[in-house]
Structure formats: C-alpha cells, structure tokens
C-alpha cells in the first residue's frame, strides 16, 4: 500500500479540480471537470465564481445558455451542463429505498407509516410536479399547488410559515426527477421545465430496490457517477467520507464502490483513490509546480471534503472555516488553507476582510491582492 501525506492529498485535489488553471477567455463556459459532479451555487460567490477560479470565463449573474441550475446533492442548488441533465438525473436516483428515505429526512417516517416507499413517494412527487409546472412557477406558488395535489402523508404543518405544505426535501429532490431546473438569479427560486429533458425519465427514480445494480447504469452516466466523482475530485476517501458527502447510507456506497479503486495510507488512515488517479496523487510532492493562490467561495467543492482534518489539521481553525452559520471563504495557497476572507461591499467598492492564519510573505500578499482584483472584476466592482 502506498503512503501519502496530507499535503500530497491537498495538492492532488487542486489539480484534479483544475484550480491550477489560469484564466482563458477562449475557454468554453462549461469547460470544467467539476461540472461532472455539480458545482454548488450558494451565496453571491457560488457556482460562477467556482468556475472562474478554475480558469473559466465567468462573471456574476451571466449564466451561459448551456449551464443549468438544479437542486441535487443534499438538496442544494448545483450547476451542470444542461445537456448532461438526463445523465445527472440517472446518477442521482436513490441507490435503494433506504437511501431514498435518508435523503428525504423526516418525510420518510409518515410516508412509511402510510405504506408508501420513499422511492415511490419521490416518483409520485416528480410526476405531479412535472404536470403542475407548465410554465415558469415561483417556489411558493408551486408549493401551494403541490399541497392541493398531494395526500396527507406528503404534507406537514410548518410552524414558521403557519401553514400546511410539503416536506422540503421531497420537494427539492423531486424537482430534478420531474425534469425541472431553477431560473438562476431568482429569489424566491422560480422553477421551469428543462428543455430537452426526456419525458420517459420524469418520475423514474427506482434503480430496482436494493441499489446493488451499478452494472445496469447507462454508459453516459459514468461521468456523473456520484461515488466515482467523489473519489476522483475529493480522493483519497473512505466509504464513510463519500457517504457523508452524498448523505447516503454507508452500506449503499460500499455496494457501489468502484472495482478500480485502490487503497492508500493517508497519514495512518486507509482511504481509496481511483487507480488511474494514483500516479497523479503520488506525483504531487511538497513544493512542486508553480504557486497557486485562490480565493475559494464558502461552499467551493475543495472545501466540501468530509475529511476536514486533512484540509485543516488545527481544530480551532477548522471551527473558524466551517461554523454552523455564516461560513467565510478560504484563502488557498499551494494546496494549503492559509486564512479566511469575507467580502465587504459598499456600492461599487468591494473590500475583503482577511484573517491570515500564519505570516504572509510579500509574494503571497501580492497574489491575494491579484485574486481580490479578479473577484471584484467578476462582481463588476472596484477593489477597495
């Protein structure tokens, strides 16, 4: 078994996620490997900034026509290539009934009590949503329509709203299976039918019951396979890490564990990486290549890895980077998180509140200033 350091792991992820690419105006707006796994769009510096720091020409609010936004992993909004959505929907079908129940959280209990399998419930929600959304529909209006269409096991009393409506997670997860996408920049979100989504896939969520049939997946789903995607972009990882990222049962993840995954020792912990990625992992030694400095958004994929101790060994700093509410962004330098940042905007002026975790030399300060300018230009602002 090969032994690798945490530094090698971090540097490998920088390269696998293409964080080492410089901006290229000639690059397509969807030319990013992370779009295979989906790019989370949370906060003002969400999916488009995540693409920008990976060298894709992007600016705030300017969504390419072939980029779609859907609720996907963990019910969070993610960007994908629109042409990939049918394959993404297949990849995001629950691995099993237990997996479906885990994904929809507290909605599973009343559904099961009524004799409804969670996978059947998701299918029913998806078909109903597709029928209801004939034209772009705001979330609140769609929720009202869905409440009128669904029976009691699908509904709950919401104390904050003072009303009865659907459980939130079946609503969010059912949307993609209904062939619906989100209109970028809308708040509250507006849902619409995704152009070209195959009608035969509407409400198709059941893989066959036990989730063991990975061999039955369509060939074009492979690039979006959730387990392989995590192992490639956030590897090495353990089944527990992958399950936590996907919010899926560990047993289901183990059943879908790739046959070409190989074990490595990451500072005393056995994890796995895809065999084709092992040479790149072993080749990322300390100090190799040019310095890469990036301002990562709070929900950037690099920061979504569940082995947080590999990214940030210091528990106090980890708490500062991943608080319960109000996450900052991360200053990444040569694969190491060296501080946090928060935007401070006033009119057309964008300042950064920086918290260095260690002394920054002049070169790092200049690099951070350059990234500040990139962020300001992305937002259409002037750096303060």
Structure description:
- This protein has 384 residues and is α+β, with helices and mostly antiparallel strands.
- Among the domains are: 97-206, no CATH class; 223-274.
- It contains 15 helices and 16 strands.
- The strands form 5 sheets. A 5-stranded mixed beta sheet has the order 12-13-14-15-16. It has a 3-stranded mixed beta sheet with strand order 1-10-11.
- β6 (155-158) and β7 (163-166) form a beta hairpin.
- α9 crosses α10.
- It is globular and about 65 Å long.
- The chain starts with a strand and ends with a strand.
> What is the total tally of β strands?
16
Span of the ends, CA to CA: 50 Å
Number of helices: 15
What is the subunit organization of this protein? single chain
Strand content: 15-25%
Shape: globular
Spatial order of strands in the largest sheet? 12-13-14-15-16
Secondary-structure-derived class = alpha+beta
Helix coverage percent: 25-40%
Mean pLDDT: 93
Characterize the main sheet.
5 strands, mixed
Give me the Rg, rounded.
21 Å
Q: What are the segments in which pLDDT stays under 50 over at least 5 consecutive residues?
A: 209-216
């Amino acid at each position: 078994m090969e032994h690798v350091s945490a530094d090698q792991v971090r540097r490998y992820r920088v390269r696998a996620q293409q964080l080492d690419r410089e901006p290229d105006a000639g690059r397509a707006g969807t030319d990013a490997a992370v779009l295979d796994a989906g790019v989370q769009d949370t906060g003002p510096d969400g999916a488009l900034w995540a693409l920008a720091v990976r060298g894709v020409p992007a600016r705030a609010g300017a969504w390419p026509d072939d980029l779609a936004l859907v609720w996907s992993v963990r019910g969070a909004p993610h960007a994908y290539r629109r042409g990939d959505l049918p394959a993404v929907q297949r990849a995001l079908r629950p691995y099993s009934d237990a997996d479906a129940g885990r994904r929809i959280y507290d909605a599973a209990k009343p559904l099961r009590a009524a004799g409804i399998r969670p996978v059947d419930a998701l299918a029913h929600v998806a078909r109903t949503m597709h029928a209801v959304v004939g034209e772009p529909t705001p979330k609140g209006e769609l929720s009202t329509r869905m409440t009128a269409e669904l029976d009691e096991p699908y509904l709950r009393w919401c104390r904050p709203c003072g009303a009865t409506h659907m459980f939130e997670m079946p609503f969010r997860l059912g949307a993609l299976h209904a062939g619906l996408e989100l209109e970028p920049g809308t708040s509250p979100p507006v849902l619409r039918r995704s152009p070209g989504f195959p009608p035969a896939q509407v409400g198709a969520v059941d893989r066959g019951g036990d989730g063991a049939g990975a061999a039955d997946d369509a060939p074009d789903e492979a690039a979006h396979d959730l387990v392989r995607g995590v192992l490639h972009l956030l590897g090495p990882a353990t089944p527990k890490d992958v399950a936590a990222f996907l919010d899926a049962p560990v047993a289901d993840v183990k059943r879908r564990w790739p046959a070409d995954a190989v074990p490595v020792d990451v500072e005393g912990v056995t994890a796995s990486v895809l065999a084709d990625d092992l040479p790149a992992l072993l080749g990322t030694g300390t100090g190799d290549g040019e310095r890469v400095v990036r301002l990562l958004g709070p929900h950037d994929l690099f920061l979504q890895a569940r082995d947080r101790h590999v990214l940030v060994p210091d528990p106090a700093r980890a708490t500062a980077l991943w608080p319960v509410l109000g996450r900052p962004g991360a200053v990444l330098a040569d694969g190491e998180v060296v501080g946090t940042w928060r935007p401070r905007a006033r009119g057309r002026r964008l300042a950064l509140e920086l918290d260095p975790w260690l002394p920054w030399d002049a070169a790092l300060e200049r690099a951070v200033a350059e990234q500040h300018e990139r962020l300001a230009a992305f937002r259409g602002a002037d750096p303060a």
